[in-house]
Structure formats: structure tokens, C-alpha cells
Amino acid sequence: MRRRSVLTILGGIAASMLVRCKSGDPSRVPGSAKRLSDNEVKMLAAAAECVYPQTGAEHGARSLGIERYLIQQRGTKYYRRKTPTLRHAVRALDEIATNTYGRAFGECSAEEQAGVFDVFARGGDAPDAAETAKAFNLLVDITLEGCFSHPRHGGNAGMNAWKVMEKALQKGWYIECDCGE
After folding, report:
1. 8 falls within a domain
2. Claim to verify: residue 143 and residue 126 sit in the same structural domain
């Protein structure tokens, strides 16, 4: 096969994918079911703020860029595998908020979201407690990854989380551990 033929075929494949993506039907975009929607990312970012809240002058998950981190990472292979669990977290948070306050999690105030998150952390009223616990643990892991990751991955805006850790170490705010060695 000649080089020109290969390039023509590859160009046709790329063009057909662009047409599919521009069709407006998300179900036709390859892999879209495995990616979090913008609304799901916003809800997870709000939940992440419950995990790592802003306190006074210290940064919280949102100010550290957790939403940007989730947007940037949602297309990676790791996060595509975790999408069903993260969607379970979104559904569980919405269900608890609706049962408690009569509105979706994203529409609740920060105090109400914190209350909903506390119920979620305890397993909620869900019959699938094992899946809810798995979703909670994953959400905590992702929050800490996003808050303390290298900024090139989307989180830790301005390296502020690292700066807080550096100040704590300079002031001697760390725990020494006798690990039996």
C-alpha cells in the first residue's frame, strides 16, 4: 500500500469522527458514556469541597482547582474505569439531598451539602452500602489527588497546597512517629 493511500484512509476516518462529534448526539461520540458530564463534574467538585473545605485563609478543594482537575482527568483511562463508581456517588448524593431537603445536591447551600455529605459518608440510606462506601472512598482519594497533584494535571492551583505543607514543616507542625525501627 502506498503512503498516499494510507494517509487518505486515515484522513477519512478522522473526518468521519469529527462529523460524529459535531452531530450533537453525545451517544454517538466514541467513549462518551465512559466520561463524566460537566454537571457530574460540578457535583463532584461540590462534594470534594466537603472533603477538603476552605477554612479561613487556607484553600479548599474548589480554590485548589478540583473542578479543573476532574475535567482534565475525566478522559484518562483510569478515570474512565472509575466513572460508574463516581456516577453512583453523584446519584447517592442527589438522592440523599432530595430526600432531606427536597432539591438536588447542586442546588443545596454549602451547609446543606455538608450535611448531605455526612450522611453519604456514613453510607446513607442506600441498600447498596458496599457500593456507596466504595464511591465515598474513591471521592476522598480523587479529592486528595486533585488538591495535592502537580498543577500540570489540573489541580493544586498555584501550588498552594504545597505551600501550606511547606509552611507547616517549617513551623514544625508534623508528627514524629516511632514505627518500631
Report:
1. yes
2. yes
